Structure formats: structure tokens, C-alpha cells
Amino acid sequence: MALIRCDGVAAAYEGQIVVHDLDFQISPGEYLCIVGENGSGKSTLVKMLLGLKAPAKGQIVLGDGLKQNEIGYLPQQTDVQKDFPASVYEVVLSGRLNSRGFRPFYTATDKKKVKEMMQLLGIEDLERQCFRELSGGQRQRVLLARALCATKKMLLLDEPVTGLDPLVTAEFYQLIKEVNKMSGIAVVMVSHDIESAVRDASHILHLQETALYYGTAEGYRNSEIGKKFLGGTA
Ligand code: ADP
Predict the structure, then answer these.
(1) What's the pLDDT band for 234 if we cut at 50, 70, 90?
(2) Helix, strand, or coil here: 13?
(3) Checking CA distances to 183, which of 107, 147, 157, 232 falls within 20 to 30 Å?
(4) How far does residue 134's CA lie from ligand 1's centre (Å)?
């Protein structure tokens, strides 16, 4: 059963349709990359998947017990977030906010999960450091640990390597692949980087107001649209 299924989904701002006729699904354990140029509707789709924007048409159906607040979300980095005056531990722990509900305190289970995720991502030594003093790559690991604390089933990463240097970018992609393989958590990543997307993802959704392509990464590589965007480098 799919975690998320989009059936004929469209989105509009002030009555103006900006994306339309989206039909795709995200299955457990899958790695879907959403690619497309600026203004193609990627952020709008992310907002709909998170339940922050209602579709103008069609529907988004959640399945396999997934709740919208159990999607582990790694937002696009903004300068405000980079300046966040909290320790690494506090940032990771805040990933447990959604499961805390109305309880006023974090439980031992919350704290155990934080430790586990920090170990998994190799950031336990940074625990007491201030988030804003970290390098870009370290920050992304911390935000990934935070997102993993929020979910058992699905990560949603919005352009996670923006501003990272090539080496750190490669490390981050590798980490995402390992998390996806080892934990079976489905990954949905919005990316500009089509070549890395085709290398790592199981499925590709190429947006340009609607799906120019949706299917397996292998199929994309061999499709007319894929060949055009990959520029013969695949
Ligand atoms: P992407 O993330 O791929 O760059 P967006 O989802 O941000 O694309 O934008 C898709 C379209 O919706 C664009 O034409 C953009 O101008 C428009 N758009 C995005 N956000 C708003 C908004 N808050 N109000 C009006 N139009 C918007």
C-alpha cells in the first residue's frame, strides 16, 4: 500500500492553476526525486504533501498508517535557520515535537531516539555545540537527524545540498542512500541535480507544471525527456 498517492492533483494561487494533473505515488522504501526548473511547482507540491496547502483539484491520499505530521521534513535552508541559537541536541530533539502532542515534556523514548539518530549520523560529538557554529555539512546532518526523529516511514528533503561544496554534497547523498537502504524509510527529495537523482533514486518525477515524466529512474534515463535533460551524460 502506498504511503502517499496523488490522484489528479492540481494547485492554485488566487485561482491561478500552477500545477495540474499530478498522478503518482510514493511506496514504502522507495526513493523518489522530484526534479524540475525554478517555478515548475516543486515547493508547491512539497507544501501539499505536508498538508500545508490544499489541492485545488484531485486528492492526496495517505496510506500504510502514515500521518501527515509523521513525515520527517528537512526544509530548504534559510539564513534565519542557520542562525538558530540552540545546541545540536536541542535541534535534534525538536524533531520529536510532533510525536509529543500535548505532553509537556519529552519522554525517555524521545531522548533515546535522539541519541540513536545522532549516533547513526556520526554527530554525537557535536551534541553540546551551538547549531549556528557548525559547517554547512554538519548542519545538514543535524537537520537530517532531526527529520529522522520525526518519522519511521518517510523523509521529505527540500533541496538539501544547496550551498554545500561538492565533497560534502557527495557525502550527504551517500548518507541518504544508506538511510534509505538500511532503515527502509522512503525518501522524497526535491533536487536540481538531475544526474545525481538518476544515479541514486529509484523513481523520478520531473515537474513542469505537470509531470513531464514519472516512473523509474532507469526508465527516465532511457526516455526522450531524460536524455534531453541529462544531456547525453547518462
Ligand atoms: P519551484 O519550487 O519549482 O521553484 P514553486 O512551487 O515555488 O516552484 O512555484 C510554482 C509556481 O507557483 C510559480 O509560477 C510561482 O510563481 C507560483 N507561486 C509560488 N508560490 C506562490 C505564492 N505564494 N503566490 C502566488 N504564486 C506563487
Answers:
(1) very low
(2) strand
(3) 107
(4) 31
